[in-house]
Specification:
single chain, 8 helices, 2 strands
């Protein structure tokens, strides 16, 4: 049975794609140190937080049980050639599974960024969403 997705917000997709240069920079600091007195001594860099917000606003992260889509996300993780075949529906599943997983597995986002996988997802989104 096909999944029906909410309509995408094209303007927010454009804003999400603006994170590509940030993710391409190997000198990128992913964290901000808030000090030892803070309840959260480290938080993600503002660019990472903005990207996540834009992905939600673009509706690339759908309300669903992300664990349903996790097998799809695992199948695509690390395989650049397979990712090049991903359509928009698959990208929505991948963004949803990976971004929502961060809520339950702290550090997952860092792995996505440091491995270059989040960058690859955005580049594929650019190829699919802007054609």
């Amino acid at each position: 049975m096909p999944t029906t997705f909410e309509p995408l917000n094209q303007e927010a997709i454009q804003h999400a794609l603006e994170a590509i240069p940030f993710l391409q920079n190997p000198q990128t600091d992913l964290y901000v140190y808030n000090g030892p007195e803070s309840l959260t001594p480290y938080t993600y860099h503002e660019q990472v937080e903005t990207l996540i917000g834009n992905l939600y606003e673009a509706r690339l992260i759908q309300a669903s049980d992300w664990r349903e889509w996790w097998p799809t996300a695992e199948a695509f993780f690390g395989g650049t050639e397979k990712l090049e075949e991903a359509d928009l529906s698959t990208l929505i599943r991948l963004f949803t599974a990976h971004i929502r997983k961060e809520r339950f597995e702290e550090g997952h986002m860092v792995n996505l960024i440091e491995s270059g996988y989040l960058l690859k997802l955005l580049q594929r989104l650019k190829a699919v969403a802007l054609t």
